[in-house]
Protein backbone atom coordinates (compact mmCIF):
# COMPACT_ATOMS: atom_id res chain seq x y z
CA UNK A 1 0.00 0.00 0.00
CA UNK A 2 1.28 3.44 -0.92
CA UNK A 3 1.76 6.08 1.69
CA UNK A 4 -0.65 8.92 1.28
CA UNK A 5 -0.40 12.36 2.77
CA UNK A 6 -3.26 13.51 5.01
CA UNK A 7 -4.17 16.08 2.35
CA UNK A 8 -4.52 13.47 -0.36
CA UNK A 9 -6.53 11.30 1.98
CA UNK A 10 -8.90 14.15 2.71
CA UNK A 11 -9.14 14.93 -0.96
CA UNK A 12 -9.95 11.29 -1.72
CA UNK A 13 -12.47 11.18 1.07
CA UNK A 14 -14.17 14.28 -0.23
CA UNK A 15 -14.13 12.88 -3.75
CA UNK A 16 -15.68 9.65 -2.54
CA UNK A 17 -18.36 11.57 -0.64
CA UNK A 18 -19.03 13.69 -3.70
CA UNK A 19 -19.39 10.55 -5.81
CA UNK A 20 -21.83 8.99 -3.33
CA UNK A 21 -23.80 12.23 -3.31
CA UNK A 22 -23.86 12.38 -7.10
CA UNK A 23 -24.90 8.77 -7.47
CA UNK A 24 -27.65 9.14 -4.83
CA UNK A 25 -28.94 12.24 -6.57
CA UNK A 26 -28.96 10.37 -9.85
CA UNK A 27 -30.74 7.38 -8.38
CA UNK A 28 -33.23 9.60 -6.55
CA UNK A 29 -33.87 11.55 -9.72
CA UNK A 30 -34.45 8.50 -11.90
CA UNK A 31 -36.45 5.33 -11.74
CA UNK A 32 -34.02 2.69 -13.00
CA UNK A 33 -31.54 2.76 -10.10
CA UNK A 34 -27.90 1.92 -10.80
CA UNK A 35 -28.48 1.23 -14.47
CA UNK A 36 -29.86 4.69 -14.89
CA UNK A 37 -26.84 6.21 -13.12
CA UNK A 38 -24.62 4.36 -15.59
CA UNK A 39 -26.65 5.73 -18.46
CA UNK A 40 -26.24 9.22 -17.07
CA UNK A 41 -22.49 8.74 -16.90
CA UNK A 42 -22.64 7.78 -20.55
CA UNK A 43 -24.53 11.01 -21.28
CA UNK A 44 -22.00 13.09 -19.35
CA UNK A 45 -19.23 11.56 -21.42
CA UNK A 46 -21.07 12.32 -24.66
CA UNK A 47 -21.68 15.92 -23.62
CA UNK A 48 -17.97 16.29 -22.82
CA UNK A 49 -17.22 15.12 -26.36
CA UNK A 50 -19.60 17.74 -27.73
CA UNK A 51 -22.33 15.23 -28.65
CA UNK A 52 -25.79 16.36 -27.53
CA UNK A 53 -28.06 13.33 -27.77
CA UNK A 54 -31.65 14.14 -28.70
CA UNK A 55 -33.68 11.02 -29.25
CA UNK A 56 -36.88 13.08 -29.12
CA UNK A 57 -35.77 14.84 -32.32
CA UNK A 58 -37.17 14.31 -35.81
CA UNK A 59 -36.37 11.56 -38.31
CA UNK A 60 -36.85 11.11 -42.06
CA UNK A 61 -38.01 8.41 -44.45
CA UNK A 62 -36.68 9.25 -47.91
CA UNK A 63 -38.55 8.31 -51.05
CA UNK A 64 -36.91 7.28 -54.32
CA UNK A 65 -38.40 6.02 -57.58
CA UNK A 66 -36.15 5.31 -60.54
CA UNK A 67 -32.36 5.66 -60.44
CA UNK A 68 -31.14 6.23 -64.01
CA UNK A 69 -28.61 8.25 -66.02
CA UNK A 70 -30.56 11.50 -66.14
CA UNK A 71 -32.31 13.36 -63.34
CA UNK A 72 -36.00 14.09 -63.99
CA UNK A 73 -39.36 13.95 -62.27
CA UNK A 74 -39.47 10.69 -60.28
CA UNK A 75 -35.94 9.80 -61.40
CA UNK A 76 -32.81 10.40 -59.35
CA UNK A 77 -29.71 10.39 -61.50
CA UNK A 78 -27.06 7.78 -60.71
CA UNK A 79 -24.64 10.61 -60.01
CA UNK A 80 -27.03 12.33 -57.60
CA UNK A 81 -27.88 9.08 -55.86
CA UNK A 82 -24.17 8.49 -55.24
CA UNK A 83 -23.92 12.06 -53.95
CA UNK A 84 -26.90 11.46 -51.66
CA UNK A 85 -25.12 8.52 -50.02
CA UNK A 86 -21.95 10.54 -49.55
CA UNK A 87 -23.76 13.61 -48.21
CA UNK A 88 -25.90 11.64 -45.78
CA UNK A 89 -22.90 9.69 -44.55
CA UNK A 90 -20.83 12.83 -44.02
CA UNK A 91 -23.67 14.56 -42.20
CA UNK A 92 -23.93 11.63 -39.80
CA UNK A 93 -27.06 9.88 -41.06
CA UNK A 94 -27.13 6.07 -40.79
CA UNK A 95 -29.47 3.64 -42.54
CA UNK A 96 -31.90 1.62 -40.44
CA UNK A 97 -34.90 -0.50 -41.37
CA UNK A 98 -38.36 1.01 -41.50
CA UNK A 99 -39.59 -1.46 -38.88
CA UNK A 100 -36.82 -0.51 -36.45
CA UNK A 101 -37.47 3.19 -36.92
CA UNK A 102 -41.21 2.83 -36.47
CA UNK A 103 -40.99 0.68 -33.37
CA UNK A 104 -38.37 2.88 -31.70
CA UNK A 105 -35.68 0.17 -31.76
CA UNK A 106 -32.96 2.43 -32.96
CA UNK A 107 -29.44 1.16 -32.84
CA UNK A 108 -27.02 3.62 -34.45
CA UNK A 109 -23.74 5.01 -33.03
CA UNK A 110 -23.72 7.95 -30.63
CA UNK A 111 -23.97 11.28 -32.40
CA UNK A 112 -25.61 9.90 -35.56
CA UNK A 113 -29.17 10.07 -36.93
CA UNK A 114 -31.19 7.11 -38.22
CA UNK A 115 -32.69 7.45 -41.71
CA UNK A 116 -34.79 5.13 -43.89
CA UNK A 117 -34.60 4.72 -47.66
CA UNK A 118 -37.74 3.69 -49.51
CA UNK A 119 -37.95 2.86 -53.22
CA UNK A 120 -41.30 2.81 -55.01
CA UNK A 121 -42.61 0.98 -58.09
CA UNK A 122 -40.04 -1.89 -58.19
CA UNK A 123 -38.33 -0.95 -61.43
CA UNK A 124 -35.24 -2.60 -62.84
CA UNK A 125 -33.35 0.64 -62.13
CA UNK A 126 -33.48 -0.29 -58.45
CA UNK A 127 -32.27 -3.88 -58.76
CA UNK A 128 -30.81 -5.09 -62.05
CA UNK A 129 -28.93 -8.29 -62.69
CA UNK A 130 -26.42 -8.57 -65.53
CA UNK A 131 -24.89 -11.58 -67.25
CA UNK A 132 -21.12 -11.55 -67.03
CA UNK A 133 -19.90 -14.62 -68.88
CA UNK A 134 -21.51 -17.50 -66.99
CA UNK A 135 -22.07 -15.42 -63.89
CA UNK A 136 -25.02 -13.27 -62.95
CA UNK A 137 -24.05 -10.11 -61.08
CA UNK A 138 -25.81 -7.13 -59.56
CA UNK A 139 -25.43 -4.11 -61.86
CA UNK A 140 -23.13 -1.71 -59.97
CA UNK A 141 -25.16 1.20 -61.43
CA UNK A 142 -28.59 0.14 -60.18
CA UNK A 143 -29.70 1.62 -56.84
CA UNK A 144 -28.96 -1.51 -54.84
CA UNK A 145 -25.60 -1.97 -56.60
CA UNK A 146 -24.62 1.60 -55.73
CA UNK A 147 -25.66 1.04 -52.12
CA UNK A 148 -23.69 -2.20 -52.00
CA UNK A 149 -20.51 -0.55 -53.31
CA UNK A 150 -20.90 2.31 -50.84
CA UNK A 151 -21.49 -0.08 -47.96
CA UNK A 152 -18.31 -2.02 -48.78
CA UNK A 153 -16.33 1.21 -48.33
CA UNK A 154 -18.35 2.52 -45.39
CA UNK A 155 -19.81 -0.43 -43.52
CA UNK A 156 -20.98 1.87 -40.70
CA UNK A 157 -23.39 3.66 -43.05
CA UNK A 158 -25.72 0.66 -42.93
CA UNK A 159 -27.32 -1.39 -45.69
CA UNK A 160 -31.11 -1.30 -45.49
CA UNK A 161 -34.11 -0.11 -47.49
CA UNK A 162 -37.80 -0.66 -48.02
CA UNK A 163 -38.89 -1.62 -51.55
CA UNK A 164 -42.56 -0.93 -52.33
CA UNK A 165 -43.45 -3.33 -55.11
CA UNK A 166 -45.88 -3.45 -58.00
CA UNK A 167 -46.56 -6.67 -60.00
CA UNK A 168 -43.60 -5.70 -62.24
CA UNK A 169 -41.43 -6.78 -59.30
CA UNK A 170 -38.18 -5.22 -60.55
CA UNK A 171 -38.89 -6.39 -64.13
CA UNK A 172 -36.47 -9.01 -65.57
CA UNK A 173 -38.94 -11.90 -64.95
CA UNK A 174 -36.22 -14.58 -64.81
CA UNK A 175 -34.58 -12.89 -61.82
CA UNK A 176 -37.63 -11.88 -59.82
CA UNK A 177 -37.34 -14.66 -57.29
CA UNK A 178 -33.57 -14.22 -56.98
CA UNK A 179 -34.05 -10.51 -56.28
CA UNK A 180 -36.73 -11.02 -53.67
CA UNK A 181 -34.73 -13.80 -52.02
CA UNK A 182 -31.67 -11.55 -51.88
CA UNK A 183 -33.69 -8.75 -50.27
CA UNK A 184 -35.21 -11.12 -47.74
CA UNK A 185 -31.88 -12.74 -46.81
CA UNK A 186 -30.17 -9.38 -46.37
CA UNK A 187 -32.76 -7.82 -44.09
CA UNK A 188 -34.38 -5.53 -46.67
CA UNK A 189 -38.10 -4.89 -46.43
CA UNK A 190 -40.88 -5.17 -49.00
CA UNK A 191 -44.03 -3.05 -48.95
CA UNK A 192 -47.30 -3.48 -50.83
CA UNK A 193 -47.75 -0.80 -53.52
CA UNK A 194 -50.99 -2.30 -54.99
CA UNK A 195 -51.68 -3.99 -58.34
CA UNK A 196 -52.50 -1.09 -60.68
CA UNK A 197 -51.18 1.96 -58.82
CA UNK A 198 -54.66 3.55 -58.58
CA UNK A 199 -55.85 6.62 -56.69
CA UNK A 200 -57.38 4.62 -53.85
CA UNK A 201 -59.52 7.64 -52.85
CA UNK A 202 -61.60 7.01 -55.97
CA UNK A 203 -61.96 3.25 -55.53
CA UNK A 204 -64.83 1.34 -53.99
CA UNK A 205 -64.21 -0.60 -50.78
CA UNK A 206 -64.04 -3.82 -52.77
CA UNK A 207 -61.55 -2.38 -55.26
CA UNK A 208 -59.37 -1.06 -52.42
CA UNK A 209 -59.27 -4.49 -50.76
CA UNK A 210 -58.47 -6.20 -54.06
CA UNK A 211 -55.63 -3.73 -54.75
CA UNK A 212 -54.12 -4.35 -51.30
CA UNK A 213 -54.76 -8.08 -50.91
CA UNK A 214 -53.61 -9.50 -54.24
CA UNK A 215 -49.97 -8.29 -54.01
CA UNK A 216 -49.69 -10.04 -50.65
CA UNK A 217 -50.82 -13.31 -52.22
CA UNK A 218 -48.44 -12.76 -55.14
CA UNK A 219 -45.51 -12.21 -52.78
CA UNK A 220 -46.32 -15.42 -50.89
CA UNK A 221 -45.95 -17.28 -54.18
CA UNK A 222 -42.51 -15.76 -54.78
CA UNK A 223 -41.14 -16.13 -51.25
CA UNK A 224 -43.54 -17.17 -48.48
CA UNK A 225 -41.11 -15.98 -45.78
CA UNK A 226 -41.46 -12.33 -46.74
CA UNK A 227 -43.75 -10.61 -44.28
CA UNK A 228 -45.65 -7.71 -45.83
CA UNK A 229 -47.25 -5.36 -43.31
CA UNK A 230 -46.70 -1.97 -44.96
CA UNK A 231 -48.96 -0.40 -47.56
CA UNK A 232 -47.40 2.27 -49.74
CA UNK A 233 -50.30 4.42 -50.98
CA UNK A 234 -49.95 5.16 -54.73
CA UNK A 235 -49.60 8.93 -55.10
CA UNK A 236 -50.33 9.13 -51.38
CA UNK A 237 -54.06 8.73 -52.14
CA UNK A 238 -56.03 7.67 -49.04
CA UNK A 239 -59.13 5.48 -49.49
CA UNK A 240 -62.49 6.85 -48.32
CA UNK A 241 -62.69 4.00 -45.84
CA UNK A 242 -59.35 4.53 -44.15
CA UNK A 243 -59.53 1.35 -42.08
CA UNK A 244 -59.13 -0.64 -45.30
CA UNK A 245 -55.51 0.53 -45.58
CA UNK A 246 -54.76 -1.64 -42.57
CA UNK A 247 -57.25 -4.49 -42.45
CA UNK A 248 -59.32 -6.13 -45.12
CA UNK A 249 -59.80 -9.18 -47.27
CA UNK A 250 -60.49 -10.13 -50.84
CA UNK A 251 -61.37 -13.59 -52.15
CA UNK A 252 -60.04 -15.28 -49.05
CA UNK A 253 -56.82 -13.26 -48.81
CA UNK A 254 -56.76 -11.35 -45.53
CA UNK A 255 -54.26 -8.61 -44.80
CA UNK A 256 -53.10 -6.71 -41.71
CA UNK A 257 -50.88 -3.73 -42.38
CA UNK A 258 -49.24 -1.87 -39.53
CA UNK A 259 -48.47 1.29 -41.49
CA UNK A 260 -49.50 3.19 -44.63
CA UNK A 261 -46.98 5.41 -46.38
CA UNK A 262 -47.72 8.84 -47.79
CA UNK A 263 -45.95 10.74 -50.56
CA UNK A 264 -44.17 13.81 -49.20
CA UNK A 265 -43.27 15.86 -47.43
CA UNK A 266 -41.91 16.23 -43.92
CA UNK A 267 -39.82 14.66 -41.17
CA UNK A 268 -41.61 13.36 -38.10
CA UNK A 269 -41.16 12.61 -34.42
CA UNK A 270 -40.41 9.08 -33.15
CA UNK A 271 -43.14 6.69 -32.06
CA UNK A 272 -42.75 7.51 -28.35
CA UNK A 273 -43.14 11.27 -28.94
CA UNK A 274 -46.65 12.71 -28.50
CA UNK A 275 -46.45 14.35 -31.94
CA UNK A 276 -45.72 11.08 -33.77
CA UNK A 277 -48.03 10.81 -36.79
CA UNK A 278 -49.08 7.25 -35.92
CA UNK A 279 -49.68 4.70 -38.64
CA UNK A 280 -49.93 7.10 -41.58
CA UNK A 281 -46.29 7.89 -42.25
CA UNK A 282 -44.99 10.92 -44.18
CA UNK A 283 -42.00 10.61 -46.49
CA UNK A 284 -39.61 13.00 -48.20
CA UNK A 285 -38.79 12.91 -51.91
CA UNK A 286 -35.10 12.69 -52.62
CA UNK A 287 -34.37 15.83 -54.62
CA UNK A 288 -32.12 18.86 -54.65
CA UNK A 289 -33.18 22.20 -53.26
CA UNK A 290 -32.45 25.44 -55.09
CA UNK A 291 -32.11 28.27 -52.59
CA UNK A 292 -32.48 30.86 -55.39
CA UNK A 293 -35.71 29.79 -57.04
CA UNK A 294 -37.09 27.65 -54.21
CA UNK A 295 -37.50 24.53 -56.36
CA UNK A 296 -37.30 21.28 -54.49
CA UNK A 297 -38.80 22.80 -51.34
CA UNK A 298 -40.00 19.96 -49.09
CA UNK A 299 -37.53 17.56 -50.75
CA UNK A 300 -34.52 15.95 -49.10
CA UNK A 301 -32.14 18.80 -50.04
CA UNK A 302 -34.42 21.26 -48.30
CA UNK A 303 -34.73 19.18 -45.14
CA UNK A 304 -31.03 18.36 -44.89
CA UNK A 305 -30.36 22.08 -45.02
CA UNK A 306 -33.11 22.65 -42.46
CA UNK A 307 -31.48 20.25 -40.00
CA UNK A 308 -28.06 21.80 -40.62
CA UNK A 309 -29.61 25.11 -39.56
CA UNK A 310 -31.71 23.62 -36.74
CA UNK A 311 -29.54 20.84 -35.28
CA UNK A 312 -31.55 20.96 -32.06
CA UNK A 313 -34.57 19.53 -33.91
CA UNK A 314 -32.74 16.56 -35.36
CA UNK A 315 -32.73 13.10 -33.78
CA UNK A 316 -29.24 12.48 -32.37
CA UNK A 317 -28.53 9.03 -30.94
CA UNK A 318 -26.87 8.39 -27.58
CA UNK A 319 -25.53 5.10 -28.97
CA UNK A 320 -27.40 3.09 -26.34
CA UNK A 321 -30.52 1.35 -27.62
CA UNK A 322 -31.70 0.71 -24.03
CA UNK A 323 -32.28 4.40 -23.32
CA UNK A 324 -34.06 7.34 -24.89
CA UNK A 325 -31.81 10.27 -24.12
CA UNK A 326 -32.79 13.90 -24.61
CA UNK A 327 -32.85 17.20 -22.69
CA UNK A 328 -34.80 16.74 -19.45
CA UNK A 329 -37.53 19.26 -20.33
CA UNK A 330 -38.62 17.08 -23.26
CA UNK A 331 -39.74 14.24 -21.00
CA UNK A 332 -43.24 15.80 -20.82
CA UNK A 333 -43.55 15.03 -24.56
CA UNK A 334 -42.92 11.34 -24.01
CA UNK A 335 -45.58 8.69 -24.68
CA UNK A 336 -44.10 6.18 -22.26
CA UNK A 337 -46.48 3.42 -23.43
CA UNK A 338 -44.91 3.56 -26.88
CA UNK A 339 -41.38 2.96 -25.63
CA UNK A 340 -39.98 -0.41 -26.69
CA UNK A 341 -39.90 -2.95 -23.86
CA UNK A 342 -37.16 -2.28 -21.31
CA UNK A 343 -36.22 1.14 -22.70
CA UNK A 344 -36.07 4.08 -20.29
CA UNK A 345 -35.91 7.84 -20.68
CA UNK A 346 -32.72 9.58 -19.57
CA UNK A 347 -32.98 13.35 -19.44
CA UNK A 348 -30.07 15.75 -18.99
ZN1 LIG B 1 -45.62 4.54 -56.98
Structure at a glance:
This protein has 348 residues and is of the alpha/beta class. It is built from eight helices and 17 strands.
Report what the structure shows:
The chain has 348 residues and is α/β, with parallel strands linked by helices. It has two domains: 1-55 and 318-348, no CATH class; 56-317, Alpha-Beta Barrel (TIM Barrel). The protein is 31% helix and 18% strand. Strands 1, 4, 5, 8, 9 and 15 form a six-stranded parallel sheet that branches. α3 packs parallel to α5 (143-153). The radius of gyration is 24 Å and the shape is globular. Zinc ion is lined by residues 120-121, 193, 197, 234.
Write the layout of secondary structure elements.
Elements: H1 6-29, H2 34-48, E1 60-64, E2 66-68, E3 75-77, H3 78-90, E4 93-95, H4 98-103, E5 113-120, E6 129-132, E7 135-138, H5 143-153, E8 162-165, H6 176-185, E9 189-192, H7 205-222, E10 230-232, E11 247-250, E12 253-256, E13 259-261, E14 280-281, E15 284-285, H8 300-309, E16 323-326, E17 344-347
Helix pairs in contact: 3-5
Bound molecules: zinc ion.
